[in-house]
Amino acid sequence: MNTKRLMGAAAATVLALGLAACSGSGAGTETTSDNTNTAAPPAADVTIGVAMPTQTSSRWIADGAAVESGLQDLGYKVDLQFANDDIPTQTQQIDQMMTNGADLLIVAAIDGTALSAQLQNAADKGIKVIAYDRLIRESANVDFYVTFDNYQVGVQQATSLLVGLGLLNKDGSDGDATGPFSVELFAGSLDDNNAYFFWDGAIDTLQPYLDDGTLVVPSGQMDIEQAAILRWQQETAQRRMEDLLTASYSGDLKVDGVLSPYDGLSRGIITALQNAGYPATISDGFPIVTGQDAEIASVKLIADDVQFASIFKDTRKLAAQAVTATEEFLSGGEPTANDTETYDNGVKVVPSYLLESDIVYADNITSLLVDSGYYTADEVASGVAS
Ligand code: BGC
Question: What's the pTM?
């Protein structure tokens, strides 16, 4: 379907009619108003390029699989690529997708500012671009954004930290604990727009407790630049936690809690704390560590009373939104946004569809993750997704 990218709006409508005819009546041709017969492009001739950041995180593997199968169920061809968290690899993959005839792109960027040339090329060819979970910045050529309410994710991360410390109850009422508690703060990769939203939501939630001294940060590292972990790397988080322990914790001073914005970072932080001799379980005094993504290895750590919480973002729902938006674009329409204010990418506010997330604690793993079919009980028990 290389040629249709060059077609204008009228022709796109014909394509839309064709696709509708394919999936609806099953008719093979469509007669346009000027009475020319146009072959209806079968969905099987439409290719969607799907660019995912990495396979080192089970979350993105699940996203890739869910987007791919959702599109294939509708008959589309899918060119799914993972970029090993390497920016040049991702830009080359996207270039290649277009060379190979992609008709629409779904992109979860590694560096949200690094894709302007690719997106300009896409726009020139009439290829719509859907930003997947991570906003693509500094480009007018982002047509739609599907994601979660990222500020709210940060609020939930901080809330889970406060619950773990006993400062809040799960129903939002004040807990019995009084503190003061020693906590350390981690942020995500600063080339990922989401990192700022998670941080802002978390810090706004923690600020009153920091202000009144209930929470103290012994390292003093309270700026996002100090807390950030480039490319969300587990090893980098482990090293930073080791450095914090060495530099700021001596004598009786112990870490009570760690704000971590992603399960991979949490596992690095947990390893550093374990190596430093902290007790094995939270019940025995292991620090409260938060997370995000409900990755299977971390869900097991939560079940085992090692990690306190994670944030469940149902990748099946996000993938379904991306597929819906794809269909709407391909049929000549505009996807339905539920937020047209929040996500300014530096050039324009990108119309967005935001989904909700949930806090995972040990006591709701079954109801949130197993009963919904996201994981089986066996996967939770083994910590490995099959
Ligand atoms: C996603 C998070 C994920 C992080 C690291 C972010 O853009 O929104 O769900 O934890 O990337 O992969």
Answer: 0.90
